[in-house]
Amino acid sequence: MKALHAPLRTALRTALWALLLLGGSLGLHLFTYSTFVVNNDLDHQREFNDGYKVFSLTLPNELSFCGEAVPLDRLDVRERLDRELLVNTYWQSNTLLAHKRAARWFPLIEEVLKREGIPDDLKYIALIESGLTNVVSPAGATGYWQFMKETGMSHGLEVNAEVDERYHVEKSTVAACKYLRNAYERYGNWALAAASYNLGQGGVDKQLGRQKRDNYFDLLLNEETGRYVFRILAMKEILRDPERYGFHLRKKDLYAPYRTRTTTINGGVPDLADWAIANGTDYKTLKLLNPWLRDNHLTNREGRTYAVLLPAEGFDSPAPVE
Questions:
Q1: What is the pLDDT of residue 6?
Q2: Average pLDDT over residues 251-280
Q3: CA 300, 306, 311 angle in degrees (round to 5)?
Q4: Number of structural domains, the chain?
Q5: 151 and 274 together in one domain
Q6: Is the CB of residue 295 less than 8 Å from the CB of residue 269?
């Protein structure tokens, strides 16, 4: 500083004082604002009410489930639907993920349902059961369609320590179609068939006999089953018309179906990590695409043929935006 000329020293000193005064003024303003927000409850409440809005929902005028009319003229039906629409509209993170995952998995599930002659609306069962993730319930129900071990095996799925096809989206969807077709033949309507997916056919039979009614919307059921079809209806409504419920997603925000190629395994595989590397991928990606492979090896004593998905060209590239 001593080497500087006097005029320059004076200018620097003036600028320094100006900065200090400005900083003090800003600090005082921030402190005053903070005190204002904390201490003035009336203004704080007004700011909150002006800046934060939560709206009730307008229910659809008509609604169907698998082509069957939902009786929206009934008070309890409207209120039960309103509850599930509100829950899923204002649980934004969960419903956003539902939109994103549905874009990846619904095309495959829809194809299977169509092939099996099952109404498209029943794809929402997988969504409300698992969120389209391979979760395991406390009771042991597993995969997108939440099959118990015995039920899955009785509907054609292989379930053991090395291969568990409850985690195989296509095969478990076929198994779910078998169950739902049988339930529809038993009850004659899809709402009761869907309810039985939650309560079991024995449980539905018991309530039909006790209450002497044959319609889901006429039955008094336990909390979970009583909400079940309405949860399906709510997700159907929100995913069908997302902007009506405040969701704005761009094409690039959705999870595109995986780009894959298929190869087969006919014998045993001592080490799946080595096998993955030999086939141009890694163990993590192999398990991502084939979660039904449950161990790090495959004995395959029966000599079965397994179709295995591997990443295709562009697997890690962003999906094209339309």
A1: 52
A2: 97
A3: 125
A4: 2
A5: no
A6: no
